[in-house]
Amino acid sequence: MDKRRYFAKKIANALLTVILVASFNFALFRILPGDPARLLMPKGKQPPEAVEKQRKTFNLDKPMWQQFIYYWGDTIQGRFGISFSEKRPVTEVVSERIWPTVVLVGTGTIIATGIGIFTGVFAGWRRNSKYDVISTNSGMVFYAMPTFWFGLLMIMLFSTYLRWFPTGRMSEPGADLQGMEAFVDLIWHMTLPVFTFAIAWVGEYHLIMRSSITGVMNDDFALTARAKGLSENTVLWRHVVPNAMLPTVTIVMMNIGFVLSGAILTETVFNWPGLGLLAYEAMTKRDYPVMQMVFLIASVAVIVANLIADITYYYLDPRVQA
After folding, report:
1. Which of 99, 97, 100, 79 is nearest to 289 (CA)?
2. pLDDT at residue 40 above 60?
3. Residue 156 has what pLDDT?
4. Distance in angstroms (rounded) separating the CA atoms of residues 276 and 101
5. How would residue 87 be classed by pLDDT, with cut points 50, 70 and 90?
6. Which residues, 6 or more positions from 291, have their beta carbon under 8 angstroms from its beta carbon?
7. Are 253 and 51 in contact (CB under 8 A)?
C-alpha cells in the first residue's frame, strides 16, 4: 500500500473518531441521574428561584441542542468552561492533576511493560516448564485481580500492619520539603500506588508476550535460523522476539494513551491527586465541564496512541506495505 495513502487514511480515521467521541462526550454525562444545579446548592431545601439562577449561570436552562452548540464552540476554541464545584476554569482544575497522573501511571506502565514482556518471553520460549506454569498462572491471577481490592490489601499490610509506607496522598500534609528530601518523600508515597497499578498490567503483558512467542517460535524463519547453526539465544532475541512483538506493540501504545486518563481505582483507593481521582470526584458532584474535559483528554490520548501504533506497524510489519 502507498505510504501517503496509508498514513492519510489512518489520520482521517483518527480525526473522525475524535469528532464522534467528542460528540458522545457531550451526551454521556447528561444522561446521568440527578440535577447538577441542585447538587451545587447548599444542602437543605432551596427556593426554586435560586436553583433556576444556578441553571442560568451554567447554561443548564437552555435546550439540549443549544447546549451542544455551546459545547462544540467552546471545545474548538479550547475553552472548557467553569467547574461547577470549584467555580474556576476547568483548564486550571485539570492541569493541576495531570502531572501526578503522569508520574504514577507512567512509572507503573514502564515497570509493568519491562517485567511483563521479559517474563513472557522466557515463559513462551520454555513452554510447559515449571517456570512457565508458575509464572503464567501467577500472571493470570494478577490480571484477574480487582485493583481496588488489591490496593486495600496493600494498605492493610504495608501501611496499617507493617507501617512501611503511607496510606495514600502524594506527600505529607503541611510538609515543606525541597530537593532530595522531596524526591525521596515522593518515592515513598508512590511505591504502593505504583505497585498496585503495575501488578495487573504485568500479568497482561506476560500473557500476551507468551502467546506471541509460542505462536512464532516454530515458524519457518525460526527453523531456518536454527538450521544455519545459530545459537538458541540468537534465534530467540534476533528472530523470534522481533516477530512476536507486533501484538504487544498495540497493547503498549494503547496503555501509553491511558497514561493521561489516569487510574481511577488506584488513585481513589490511595487518594492520589491525579486525573483518576478528579474524574471520580467530578462524577459524584455531577461536574459536567470537568468530566467532559477529563474524558476528552483520555479519549484523544488513546486515539493518538493508536495512530502512532498504526504508523509504527507500517515499518515493523512488511505485510502492511504489501
Report:
1. 79
2. no
3. 92
4. 8
5. confident
6. 29, 279, 282, 283
7. no
Report pLDDT for 315: 73
What SS3 state is found at 256? helix
Instruction: Name beta bridge partners: 89.
Output: 82
Sequence-distant (6+) residues with CB within 8 A of 319 are none
User: What distance in Å separates the CA atoms of residue 296 and residue 286, rounded to the nearest whole number?
Assistant: 16
CA distances from 5 to 13, 14, 19, 291 (A): 12, 14, 21, 36
- Do you know the residue count of the chain? 322
- Which residues partner with 82 through β-bridges? 89
Report the SS3 class of residue 67. Answer: helix
Q: What count of other Cβ atoms lies within 10 Å of the Cβ of residue 15?
A: 12
Q: Which uninterrupted H or E stretch holds 227?
A: helix 220-227
Biggest CA-to-CA distance, the chain: 86
Q: What are phi and psi of 165, to 5 degrees?
A: -130, 160
Check residue 176 and give left, alpha or beta (phi > 0: left; psi -120 to 50: alpha): beta
Assign 262 a pLDDT band (cuts: 50, 70, 90).
Answer: low
- Report field, pTM of the whole predicted structure over 0.85: no
